[in-house]
Structure formats: C-alpha cells, structure tokens
Amino acid sequence: MKGLLTLKDLETSKIVELIEYAIKLKNGHYVRYPDKKVATLFFENSTRTHYSFQCALMNLGVNVISCDVGRSSVQKGETLYDTVKTFEALGVDGVVIRSSVDEYFKELENINIPIFNGGDGKTNHPTQSLLDLMTIYEEYGHFDGLKCCIIGDIAHSRVAHTNIEIMERLGMKVYISGPAEFNDNCAPFLSIDEALEEMDVIMLLRVQFERLEEGMTLTNEEYHEKYGLTLERVAKMKNNAIIMHPAPVNRGVEIADDVVECEKSRIFKQMTNGVYIRMAVISEAMDGKL
Ligand code: CP
C-alpha cells in the first residue's frame, strides 16, 4: 500500500531521511503540488493531527477536502473501504485517515492512492512519532544512546507503542513509568524518581479517559501527586533534558499548569514540527517515493 500506515514498514534510514527532509522544509525548502487533491477523514476527534495535516497540505499548495464524516454517507452505513474507494474514484490523490479501529488500513489493501495514517486505535500514530523524533533530533543531533522514559497511560497509547519500537531501532534506551494499571510491560519499568534523574527525554502521556470503561482507580488529584510532572519534579531532571507530550494535555493531572510552557518543555515545538513532518511525508508520497 502507498503512503504511510505504520513505521514498521519503513527502514531506519528512510525515517532519518524523512526527518532531515522535514528540517530542510522548515528551513524554507520550496516544493508545491498545485494539481493534487487530498481528503482528510477523521472518524475520531483531533486538533493537532487533523489541522496540521491541513496546514501541511496548504503549505504544499495541495487542495484539501476536509470530509465531514458526520454528514457523509458513513452515517448511512457506508464502509470505510467504500468511502475511500469513492474518493479514489473522484480523482483524489491521497487520503488522511484517523480511526479508533486498530489497523483499519488492513481493509484498504485494494486502494491504489496513498493513505496517510493519522492514528489507528491503540496501535500506530506514525506522523506523531516522526515529529517526536524530529524534535529530539533537533535537540541532540543524534538518537544513539539517548534515554527516554514514557510516563502515563501506556496501555491505551498508540504514541507509546509506535515510539518504543522506533526509538529502540534508532539506538535509544526506552523505559516506561506511571500507575501500574497503565503498565502493559511493553518496555522496562522505572520509578518516577529514577526517570527524572537519568533521562534525556521525559515524555508524558495523557490519561485517555475516553478509553477507560471503568474510569481510573486514582482521582486526578492522586494521579498528579504521585505521577504528575510538577516544577518541583522538573528541578530533579538533568540540565539539558527535555519534556515532551503529544497533547492534548490534562493540566493538573499528568502535567502541572506551569510546566506546560516551562523552559524544558518542547510541547508546542512538537506541534510546529508536526506540520513539517507531514509536509515531508506528503511530498514523498506525491513524488511516488512513499
Ligand atoms: N497528538 C495528537 O494526536 O493530538 P490530536 O488528537 O489533537 O490530533
């Protein structure tokens, strides 16, 4: 299949190439595709991924069709395959899809236009991982040997699962931390104190309340007290260590209000980098290289 569905399909060298291309675009490299059309289909809510894909497409001069799923024939029971096949028949050159279904793209194998995965279930969020990696690369200039601890709701996180696989492949040492109820043993576990003192990257995750059928065992206040990143905890981090979070953030739960924009935070830089990473991915696909 064409486009970008999962980072597992990409060679490590291609991932570094995409990051370097995104940095080149951030530095002003000019490329335009005025004859192309791309549709965005978001079956799950999104601010960053949806609108940074749209900004990326606009920056590339690509025409954007923002499909209002709630007013489309999806509401009459049309399948994902038939919806995407329809956009292909209309002459669209690619589709961006977010869905709560793990690996929804497996039912799209007969689609011939590029598909850009904007997140599927608890499994993949490839462009989020690429923008995270771009942010780390801009900070340190390399990946090998860097230590990252992902803290929070690991079990429900496509960001954690995508990042752990690719970060390890790039030579990083990845750990997880947070409440036991969110630990799915996908990486070695550290206590919060160990993580704060030893890591180059602290990556926080949102508690995904919408995916918790029976809610969280802890109250928000208890979570914040035991695991939340406060300024007091930030003071224990290494001098040049950075704080990341894919956002949206739950202020006062996994992160204190005054940490969101503190000097070590790269949270809004991640969002900016998301535009350039998505430009790089779309450009490569429009050139037939993805
Ligand atoms: N980081 C992220 O995927 O945010 P959205 O859900 O707002 O797209």
User: Termini distance?
Assistant: 9 Å
Number of alpha- plus pi-helical segments? 9
Strands of the biggest beta sheet: in what spatial order? 1-5-4-2-3
Q: Low-confidence parts, pLDDT < 50 over ≥5 residues?
A: none
N to C succession of SSEs: EHEHEHEEHEHEHEHHEH
Strand elements, count: 9
The average pLDDT score comes to: 96
The first-level CATH class of the largest domain is given as: Alpha Beta
* Amount of beta strand: 5-15%
The CATH architecture of the largest domain can be named as 3-Layer(aba) Sandwich
CATH superfamily of the largest domain: Aspartate/ornithine carbamoyltransferase
Number of domains in the coordinates? Answer: 2
User: What is the approximate shape?
Assistant: globular
Walk me through the structure:
The protein is α/β, with parallel strands linked by helices. It is built from nine helices and nine strands. The chain folds into two domains: 138 residues, Aspartate/ornithine carbamoyltransferase (Rossmann fold); 139 residues, Aspartate/ornithine carbamoyltransferase (Rossmann fold, 3-Layer(aba) Sandwich). The chain has a five-stranded parallel beta sheet with strand order 1-5-4-2-3, sandwiched between helices. The protein has a four-stranded parallel beta sheet with strand order 7-6-8-9, sandwiched between helices. Helix 2 links the parallel strand 2 and strand 3. Helix 1 packs across helix 4, helix 1 packs across helix 9 and helix 4 crosses helix 5. It is globular. The model has no long low-confidence stretch (mean pLDDT 96). It binds phosphoric acid mono(formamide)ester. The site of phosphoric acid mono(formamide)ester has 10 residues, from helix 2. Phosphoric acid mono(formamide)ester binds next to helix 2.
